[in-house]
Amino acid sequence: MSRSLVAIEELANQFGLKRNRSTPGRAPPWQIECSACHEPETFGWAASMPPFLMVKKLRQRGWQLSEKAPPVCPECQKKEKTVAKQEIGPDPKIARKIYSALDEHFDESTHLYRAGWDDARIAKEIDTALVVVIRIRRDAYGDLAEDPAMQILRDDLEMLRMEANDMQVKFLSELAGQLHKIADMERRIEATPALRKAVC
User: To 10 degrees, the CA torsion angle through 114, 119, 124, 125?
Assistant: First the structure.
């Protein structure tokens, strides 16, 4: 595998996109798995597709993607919104487990999780809905120090920078090709008296 393809996979992996090499065929498809329902979705994108395009396409489909949080599919987001509208609170036993986990893994002074922990991991460890953890965490400690929307904006900015860099590389490559052609034609004119005289 070329270095460029390795770099593409490394960037894509940060958003939960991986190559499914268990699928037979010459070009393993891209796959992403929802962190809530664990249902995978497969895509036949080219191996060389820039990661920012993959992320853009998935967000257009409704996926919630960020380098700092696991991916969530559109259906699970709808379920979370439905649960959030319900007035019935979580089972008291579940609530106690969530409070205990928050006390252990959430830093109240910084309003941030300790390394390796987030709302999704607590929900998975306790086997409850992510929205329940988020609601209790907000009620007990308030919002996270950084709005997830800001992280998405930063991710979008990084994608735009990558896209601009890709355009710059292509432009410089094309420019170098044109300059090479110009230099070659100048050498041919200098090497051929008849051509040099005709041009003059």
Answer: 40
